[in-house]
Write a structure and sequence with these properties.
This protein has a single domain (33-141), classed as Up-down Bundle (Methane Monooxygenase Hydroxylase, Chain G, domain 1). It has helices at 2-61, 68-101, 107-125, 130-141. Helix 3 packs antiparallel against helix 4 (130-141). The protein has 4 helices and no strands.
């Protein structure tokens, strides 16, 4: 009988250890998701900052009396900047989609922020990428 009591006590100890281990695993998963959310938000803020700078640049050139050559250079610089930023936006959207597919605890908030960044990107880039971004936006939100 004493052996049975000791075995039962060890089972309870193992069960408690397993419960602590399971709680640690759950906590770690939650912290990993928090880190992923922070990284996503950082990427969104960088994209939004870039777009705000581009928008301000476009607003500065409206009616400023600049010559055609200067405006053409600004337009070419803007196109180059869009092309370099496009990869970052695609990476941001891909990361958001991975978080959503991985059942992230804030998947609704991530989807909403992704959509806002994409919508702003469409407005910022203008007609050059409008159809491509809209097609991507429609394809990813269905």
């Amino acid at each position: 009988m004493r052996e049975f009591a000791l075995s039962l006590e060890k089972c309870w100890e193992l069960n408690e250890l397993f419960s602590v281990y399971r709680a640690w695993i759950d906590r770690r998963a939650r912290l990993d998701q928090c880190l992923e959310a922070q990284l996503f938000n950082r990427d969104c803020e960088q994209a939004e900052t870039w777009m705000a700078a581009r928008e301000a640049s476009l607003e500065d050139s409206d009616g400023s009396g600049e010559g055609v050559d200067a405006l053409l250079r600004k337009h070419e610089d803007f196109d180059r900047a869009i092309n370099s930023q496009e990869e970052k936006i695609v990476a941001l959207v891909t990361f958001a989609d991975q978080l959503i597919a991985g059942d992230h605890y804030d998947k609704d908030g991530i989807a909403e922020r992704r959509d806002k960044v994409l919508e702003r990107c469409v407005l910022c880039t203008g007609h050059n990428y409008n159809l491509r971004w809209l097609a991507y936006l429609v394809a990813t939100t269905q």
